Amino acid sequence: MEEQDIVRSLAALAQPVRLQVFRALVVAGPAGLTPGALVEALDVQATSLSFHLKELTHSGLVTQERSGRNLIYRAAFERMNALIGYLTENCCQGEACLPQAACAC
Known about the structure:
Layout: H1 3-13, H2 16-28, H3 35-42, H4 46-59, E1 62-67, E2 70-75, H5 77-88, H6 100-103
Antiparallel strand pairs: 1-2
């Protein structure tokens, strides 16, 4: 990942509602969630949620897919893993400190 992509992703997560939305999408896994399900789960207004989903999508951490009349939002696990990998790339003085399976989703 490019440094500006890292900054964009971290900036998107640096807001409480967006962080909650992203974590909910990570928990949902590949099935993703509709905006209605997120509104109910997080007790956030739909108009506010729309703004936050747009920011997360713009950062590349969330994908959007139309399924009939519904929009499905999913965490972009590859992007998330790349972000985590960038942040931990030089930890432990370059030595592996965790098994590879523990570092990726």
